[in-house]
Known about the structure:
The complex is a heterodimer of chains A (about 230) and B (about 240). Chain A has about 230 residues and is an all-alpha fold. Chain A has helices at about 5-45, 50-65, 70-90, 100-125, 125-135, 140-170, 180-195, 195-225. Chain A has a single domain (about 5-225), classed as MetI-like fold (Orthogonal Bundle). In chain A, helix 1 (about 5-45) crosses helix 4. The termini of chain A are far apart. With about 240 residues, chain B is an all-alpha fold. Chain B has a domain at about 30-190: MetI-like (MetI-like fold, Orthogonal Bundle), CATH 1.10.3720.
Amino acid sequence: MSDLDWDVITRSLAYVLADGLGFTMKLTVTATLGGIVLGTFLALMRQSRLAIIRKFAEIYVDTARSLPLILVIFWIYFLLPYFAQWVTSAPRPVSIDAYTSAFVTFTLFEAAYFAEIVRSGLRGIKRGQIDAGYSLGMRYPQVMTSIVIPQAFRNMLPVLATQTIVLFQDSSLVYVLSLTDMLGAATKVAQRDGRLVEMYLFVTVVYFAISFTASQLVQRLQSRVASPR
Amino acid sequence: MSYDWSWSIFLQPTLDGSMSYAELLLQGTGITVVTALLGWVIALALGTIVGIMRTVPVPSLNCFARAYVEVFRNIPLLMQLFLWYFVVPELLPEGLGNWLKSLHYGSFYMAFIGLGVYTSSRVAEQIRAGIKSFPPGQTNAALALGMTLPQAYRHVLLPRTYITMLPSLTSEMLAIIKNTSVALTIGLAELTAQARAMQEYTFHVFEAFTAATLIYFALNVIVVQLSRMIERRTANKI
Lengths: 229, 238
């Protein structure tokens, strides 16, 4: 307790924040955008008239949501080489680096959670709005893209943002692939210099500061979005 | 796919020969369940206390409870487990810290404590939302009947809160089972860790992960069924 060396933080600041936090942010942003796009498709599929499409989306979402993210990280990390082999018809499994695997995993996994958010957002749009669109001569894609989805997203914005904060925190789990996200970078310095306490407390403060600030902003967003529509 | 499937791998003995791989995974399942249950007890107890503190008419308690929730909700679970396992023993007085580090099942204790405290901040929010969802007339009626405020919580507000919040408490319970896998990073030999160990020793990665996946599905189904049972039994008690 007495011999703490806080200097180790300043020495490794560039590495932990630029490399580590940089990767954490990149993963968070990519998986959020990819997850929302894929999640929107899944949510629309769950409204499909074709039972097989509905069922596929349902099974996808339920499976992802009932498994721990860590197990999914391992699944995809080991499955991806075989999948790439199948796609490219290579003679043996293609080696895929852990970075790519992390981006794929987080996008696919978070899509299931975003799909549930989008689904409830879509259900919040009154049937009359959709009928009005059709009676104006619009087709399904037009009704969705110019009437339903814009309004639904406006209402969902706070929940989507909250899920992004969860995703930001979950991104620390790439630790199991030994990637250099913020926690990974801090761990590498901590183990090299034998300064676990200092490094871990520092990263905790950074995680907290970002998540807390973001969640306060979401609360303010919520009160603005809650205005009459 | 050029993968060599072999389901009989589960019957083969592990490296030390003490059990089969099937038993190894079941042992992991047992550790997952026990850790999640102990964590859940802590989460429910602390979550209820903190949730109540957020709703009582005492500003200092409100403030403390809010800070508690914000702290444990805004730090990633993995980070929290590292803090419990690596940092807490260093910050305690030396004797106590060394005792903690020398514990044989140290990662198990720290896993369920860490998971419990993390989940308690989420349970507290559910409890608060449940209590706030009742009109103030509920509390007033209880007080008018001569109950003290603690009695009103004990006999009126809390029982109804648990019943109305059962669906969200069920998803927190499902979450703590899944989150137990995060404790593999501090060395807990739970289900995902054992599936990973089996993959490392046998190279039969997909059999191991398929088994783990099916076991997680089964645990989900059991919890959901239990919750439905409680729901049926309490349906006419609100």
